[in-house]
Known about the structure:
The structure holds 2 protein chains of 2 kinds. Chain A is mainly α. Chain A has helices spanning 2-35, 40-44, 52-62, 68-80, 94-129, 134-148, 151-165, 190-197, 200-237, 240-247, 252-282, 284-289, 295-304, 308-336, 338-342. Chain A has 2 domains: 2-80, no CATH class; 97-342, Orthogonal Bundle (MetI-like fold). In chain A, helix 1 (2-35) packs antiparallel against helix 14, helix 5 (94-129) packs antiparallel against helix 11 and helix 11 (252-282) runs antiparallel to helix 14 (308-336). By secondary structure, chain B is an alpha/beta fold. Among the domains of chain B are: 6-259, Rossmann fold (3-Layer(aba) Sandwich); 372-450, no CATH class. In chain B, 36% of the residues lie in helices and 25% in strands. In chain B, the strands form 4 sheets. A 6-stranded mixed β-sheet of chain B has the order 6-7-8-3-9-10, sandwiched between helices. A 6-stranded mixed β-sheet of chain B has the order 16-17-18-13-19-20, with helices on both faces. In chain B, strand 17, helix 17 and strand 18 (485-490) form a beta-alpha-beta unit. In chain B, helix 4 packs parallel to helix 7, helix 15 (405-418) crosses helix 16 (435-447) and helix 16 (435-447) runs parallel beside helix 17 (465-482). The interface between A and B is medium-sized, with 24 and 33 residues.
Amino acid sequence: MSTLLNIGRRVGRHLLASLPALFGVVLFTFLLMRVLPGDPAAFFASGPNAGQAEMAQIRETMGLDRPIPEQFLRYVGDLARGNLGQSMTTGQPVMADLAERMPASLELTLFALVLALALALPLGIVAALRPNSLIDHGVRFLCTLGVCVPTFVTGLLLIYVFYYLLGLAPDPTGRIDIFAAPPPGITGFLLVDFLLVGDLAGWKAAFGQLILPACTMALFVLAPLARMTRASLLAVLGSDFIRTARSVGMSDWRVVVVYALRNALLPVLTIIGIVFSTMLGANVLVEKVFSWPGIGSYALDALLASDYAPVQGFVLLIAVIFVMVNLTIDVLYGIVDPRISLK
Amino acid sequence: MSSPLLDIQNLHVAFSTREGLVEAVRGIDLKLAPGGTLAVVGESGSGKSVTAYAVTQLLDRAARIPKGRILFRGEDITRADPARMKALRGAAISMVFQSPRTALNPIRSIGLQVMDAIAAHENLPKAVLRARALELLEAVRIRDADKRFDAYPAELSGGMCQRVMIAMAIACNPSLLIADEPTTGLDVTTQKTVMDLIAGLTAERGMALVLITHDLGLAASYCRDVMVMQQGRVVEAAPAVDIFRHPSHPYTRRLVAASPTPTSTVEELVGEAPRAPRATPRDPRDARVLLDVSNIVKRFDSTLAVEDVSLTLKAGESLGLVGESGSGKSTLSRIVCRLADADGGRIMFDGVDIGAIPLRTFHDSPWRREIQIVFQDPHESLNPRFTAFECIARPVRRLAKLTDAAQVKRRVEEVAERCGLSRDLLTRFPHQLSGGQKARIGIARAIAVEPRLLVLDEPTAALDVSVQAVVLKLLDDLRHDEGLSFLFVSHDLNVVRMMCERTIVMRHGRIVEEGESHALFRNPQAAYTRDLLGAIPHFEPVQTATA
Lengths: 343, 547
């Protein structure tokens, strides 16, 4: 019971501590957008021949004619009311746009993360159990490769091999075949929704669309996860309590899984948090290559169009997700490691 | 002797290192009867622990056994396959390790860990495992075992953790228990309860005990036979009674002599004849007061670490500060040498209120060079990137304000020689030096600026007894020759008695007893002081003969 109370208190403290950081993010992106070259009014004017009057009118509707501090106050005021502003490119509220695209990005990132973990953990464990063996060197090579090849190259390569050469993968555009019927939007995650309505053919199609971009992302984050698992497990395997476990005759499996691995995964947990947040924000290239309708490509388009509101909304969303992910990791840590909640 | 339980014949253990093969154990023989008790005594590097790990095959990957045999109940287990060893470990041969806190899995409750130890050899349903584990925790006298069952190691004291470790080791009733320095790092009173527990349980369950220790007193109090090792070889093996009464090997003799006893003097430790009372010019009793500390209070969060403690120290006097962990002795010493702030009280040094000088600027005040510190761990307290010369030269430049390179060099070489460090050692880095040499550097660094007060925080706790003897002798000589005052913090009562004229016994942040060292040790007034003294293991043959 006291552990729960402890965790609750830590969550509260954590949330409070993240407020200044979030405010800083809001202010920084707001200023950055104002400093960047490019005039939204010129971009959204009806054509190259638009007159000064039209431009001025666009500026006025966007509120760009006011002094910057006033613009900022209005922006913060809108934020407080849950209004992220209006996108000029799509003509929709930013909130609605993000809400529509968020599941696509989340599904891709989560799937890629699970894939990466399913690959990285065993590889890291095997490498740690046989340090400096052929397997260890093989894992090191694979990780290096994953990090140094840019995601768009990996993505194109995968498309080339699996779509063009082998014909195994479907047409790499979007989350679902253009001619297929999307499932009713229950959770927004296609794989889950198809399962919920029992449409297995649809599920298979969606899975086919997802697998290549997910592999691309997974390969990119394989290295930090696998290397961290290896280093951490190696350190734990050398510690005193492993010797104790061996000295009472526990089986190798129990020593490695129950005693070593659980301890070794603590630092990996931290890395997972960082990797997840990074994947969510930095998968713009993957989304572009696979025409994935996610928030990354949405924000990139808005940035190129000097469309302030979506970019600010995107950055704020990523910041909030970052805070939430770290919070989750922190809570998990408190549950897994009793020493944390003792302090 | 009936057929031995453990029979080691001409065992060699070698480690492959970058410099090639290094032999840690060079041909030892050992026989232990069922139910027997054997202490393997030696200093660091003697190969005593390596021998134990060779028996249980828990040696480092780099280790090899090029020669020799280990027979357990007549079975050759020198190169037994992993499955066979797994079956033996825990069920037939168990170990208890040093530093109990790290020997337990930090994120698994102690109850589950004991259950794991049973489950390693017996296939039982969960409920039975739990009941057995609870019984074991009660057998090692953990109070409220059912409440502590779900506790994690970090919630328990070091002594409690060691009990859990013992419970795991005896879980499947092995016939041999190897205890590798099981009480190093524990307080004397805890040491006594843990050792009594090990001795009691092994006797009760008919287990044989191999106790690996550097402490002769411990060896003599708890084992019938003793084997002394030096540099991988057995130098002497005999019943404990004989070995301490008539040590035959010169090394054993040196070791016995170097171990502080209730009556030994610093000279005796290093094998010198007791010196005639020194003709110190000033008798400390009528010297003026150098340090006057009054009503010191120190809080950490809500707990009081030091509670209203006052003490005085006269010029040329040595004052011992004794207590177990958590007694506040180290905190107090840090406050006195101005490395920490007190929450109340006054520190007068030579009539000046040095407690009023802010901590941040104290290093710049002229009093910094007057009060110097010798730290507990000679390894950790030297900058690994500085040569020995640089370690000593730093304070000479900064505090003694010597700027001329030749002058600095002369001063450093002077104190190094005074501390028994030869000149060629000064160019070396800490990792190239032995523990004793590093301890000398720590002392040289402190006295290089000619302080008047030296605060010594367990200066020999990390050293082997023979090295400790030499370092204590050095410190004692320095004090008398240079007229230094000592504030000597230690958990070792015998050391304090030899080194200090007066002693203060602390417990829970308060002074329990204070007085002339000899009187205090001969006739302790406080019950706690009596407990402390009673817990020190002695190797007087008289005591072991009755055991």
